[in-house]
Design a protein that fits this description.
Elements: H1 3-28, E1 33-42, E2 48-57, E3 64-72, E4 78-89, E5 92-100, E6 106-113, H2 123-129, E7 135-141, E8 144-152
Antiparallel strand pairs: 1-2, 1-8, 2-3, 3-4, 4-5, 5-6, 6-7, 7-8
Length: 160
């Protein structure tokens, strides 16, 4: 084999290895699952709030999720926006939420899910369940508390 062929062969081999490793990396970088839907929450005394939610579930940890939510008026206008996070640990489904208030203030609280009889093992399965059945739980912020319910968009949790 001549030096030119050896040089060319090693260069082609190196490029092939580089492409192969890049493809393997891209293959392992699965996109996060994205779901969305609507929610409703009680605030006591027959008062209810409603809005939308979206979720992003990491492929590396199907028991951890984060997302955003909106509070909408009866006219459908967004009156508040926020973020939320979730984690399932030791069989308990719980998380936190925050909101940005129009006057510049912030609200925050915690939530937990009530999934008695649910055989799912991950947050991803919990959110996927909203396509078939409403998911419910409770929330708290300081001395305020209530209940919440999630449904999937158009009756079906769908990837975005």
């Amino acid at each position: 084999m001549t030096p030119k062929r050896t040089w060319l062969g090693s260069r082609v081999f190196f490029l092939w290895l580089l492409l192969l490793s890049g493809s393997a990396y891209a293959w392992s970088q699965e996109a996060p699952s994205r779901l969305s839907g609507s929610w409703m929450a009680s605030t006591g005394a027959e008062r209810y709030l409603r809005g939308t939610w979206s979720a992003e579930i990491s492929p590396e940890n199907r028991n951890s999720a984060r997302g955003s939510w909106t509070l909408v008026s009866d006219a459908g206008d967004i009156v508040m926006e926020g973020t939320w996070s979730a984690r399932k640990t030791a069989g308990v489904w719980q998380g936190t939420w925050t909101a940005r208030v129009s006057n510049g203030g912030a609200l925050s609280g915690s939530w937990s899910a009530d999934l008695a009889g649910f055989a799912g093992k991950t947050i991803a399965e919990m959110l996927d369940r909203t396509a078939e059945k409403q998911v419910a739980g409770s929330w708290q912020s300081g001395r305020y508390q209530g209940y919440w319910w999630l449904d999937a968009s158009r009756g079906k949790a769908k990837p975005k």
